[in-house]
Design goal:
With 110 residues, this protein is of the alpha+beta class. It has helices spanning 33-40, 85-98; strands spanning 7-15, 20-28, 55-58, 61-63, 74-78. The protein folds into 2 domains: 7-78, Phosphatidylinositol 3-kinase Catalytic Subunit, Chain A, domain 1 (Ubiquitin-like (UB roll), Roll); 82-110.
Amino acid sequence: MASNEQTFPVDVIYALPEQQKVITVNVSQGTTFIEAVEQSGIQAFFPDIDLASIKLGVFSRQVKHNEVLLPGQRVELYRPLIADPKDVRRKRAEKAKEEGRINKVTGAKV
């Protein structure tokens, strides 16, 4: 039974510090990002993934779960941040001030 429905390959990508996984699935036109993730079965490898709340993206640009995939795109699953980047920068700057590595008034390196 031949189908005239167009399909195209999409990589579903998830990475942890110690391992990463790329699963290629063939999807139909009109498939959404979250549908591609579900079709990939990536949760079998990473059971901690919460499909309801996971952030998705394509080439480092965040997308909505119901956004439709286009040929040539890939689905990136993003882990939650462990620390707020602003807090990390603030703490680093405070430590540098305390150690005398930056000017306390201007913030410039000494």
